[in-house]
Design goal:
This protein is mostly beta strands and 159 residues long. Strand 8 (121-125) and strand 9 form a beta hairpin. The protein has two helices and eleven strands; from the N terminus they run αβββββββαββββ. The chain has helices spanning 7-22, 114-117, and strands at residues 39-49, 52-62, 69-70, 77-80, 83-85, 97-98, 103-112, 121-125, 128-133, 148-152, 157-158. The strands form three sheets. Strands 7-2-1-10-11 form a five-stranded antiparallel beta sheet.
């Protein structure tokens, strides 16, 4: 069947297949991400603001439900222990609306306190839980003030 396709369609077919295979299969730390869930972390960054952190997760989401899902920080919670870390909503930000059977990418922001950053941090969407930071101290004072810094995860290391 593939051999019967015109050359342009074969190129598109293999390009899309390669993209689907490579997209989101590993985190920046090289840890394989579970493919069973709809949520995958593509990138993780933090910005120090005094003694607090803005935690920014870029996520890929596949909507396996029969309803549209708006990819906002409120829909995908960040948890430290039993506590929900508040979402940080940027004004005029357009969050994608992912229709059933499709996928999308969104940048999710959260405002974390130092005591929360010392705990294990987990992104939760419905029943899926992704650990983005293992428990343990993280010296936020080592980070430059007001600059976005990219991290490997779940053992946070500045890249």
């Amino acid at each position: 069947m593939i051999a019967a396709m015109p050359p342009l369609f074969r190129l598109l077919f293999f390009g899309v297949a390669l993209l689907l295979i490579s997209c989101g299969s590993k985190s920046s730390s090289g840890v394989t991400v579970a493919a069973a869930g709809p949520l995958q972390v593509q990138q993780l960054a933090v910005r120090r603001e005094g003694d607090h952190l803005l935690v920014r997760a870029t996520v890929h989401f596949t909507n396996k439900t029969n309803q549209a899902v708006r990819l906002r920080s409120e829909a995908i919670g960040l948890h430290a222990g039993g506590e929900i870390i508040p979402a940080f909503t940027r004004p005029f930000n357009e969050y994608p609306n992912v229709e059933p059977g499709t996928s999308g990418v969104s940048v999710l922001d959260y405002w974390a306190e130092p005591r929360q950053v010392a705990q294990e941090l987990r992104l939760k969407y419905q029943e899926q839980v992704l650990t983005i930071k293992t428990a343990g101290e993280f010296n936020i004072q080592q980070l430059p003030e007001g600059q976005m810094v990219f991290l490997s995860w779940p053992a946070w290391q500045v890249r």
